[in-house]
């Protein structure tokens, strides 16, 4: 079984999502299907078809989470330190072209959320940053051409 690196917070979020799906979403969709069945002809019942589609999504996500969670290898980021970028690091980079500063946390692939500032360890940026130190420059391939970043800060939270 292949193991995936993950932070403790990321694992807790996935476990909470699984609990929520099993204890709240699944029973709710079963009730919705039962209610829709009571309305008669299922072939033209939009509520029934929507509920069945929702049920399919929920069951698929439950199966996915039940496959991911046992494969998680939790890495305690609080025990890490230094100025070298590794899994779990929160890295501030400066775009060498625009001087724009951005901060990212490098996390496992199943917990990454760019809107929250976390990127997957398998993303091009994270791959370029891993192993580099404070002050290093990295070249990152991007669809619009390579981008160069300088590592301005590395911390472990």
UniProtKB/TrEMBL annotation:
The keyword Metal-binding does not apply. It comes from the Bacteria. Keywords: DNA-binding, Elongation factor, Protein biosynthesis, Transcription, Transcription regulation. GO terms for biological process: DNA-templated transcription elongation; regulation of DNA-templated transcription elongation. Residues 82-155 form the Transcription elongation factor GreA/GreB C-terminal domain. Necessary for efficient RNA polymerase transcription elongation past template-encoded arresting sites. The arresting sites in DNA have the property of trapping a certain fraction of elongating RNA polymerases that pass through, resulting in locked ternary complexes. Cleavage of the nascent transcript by cleavage factors such as GreA or GreB allows the resumption of elongation from the new 3'terminus. GreA releases sequences of 2 to 3 nucleotides. This is Transcription elongation factor GreA.
């Amino acid at each position: 079984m292949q193991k995936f690196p993950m932070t403790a917070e990321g694992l807790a979020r996935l476990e909470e999502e699984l609990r929520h799906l099993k204890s709240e979403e699944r029973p709710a969709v079963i009730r919705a299907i039962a209610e829709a069945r009571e309305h008669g002809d299922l072939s033209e019942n939009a509520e029934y078809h929507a509920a069945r589609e929702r049920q399919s999504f929920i069951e698929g996500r439950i199966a996915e989470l039940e496959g991911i969670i046992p494969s998680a290898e939790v890495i305690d980021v609080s025990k890490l330190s230094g100025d070298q970028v590794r899994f779990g690091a929160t890295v501030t980079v400066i775009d060498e072209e625009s001087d724009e500063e951005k901060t990212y946390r490098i996390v496992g692939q199943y917990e990454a959320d760019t809107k929250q500032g976390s990127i997957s360890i398998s993303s091009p940026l994270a791959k370029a940053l891993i192993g580099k130190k404070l002050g290093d420059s990295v070249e990152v391939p991007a669809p619009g051409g390579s981008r160069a970043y300088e590592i301005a800060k590395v911390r472990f939270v």
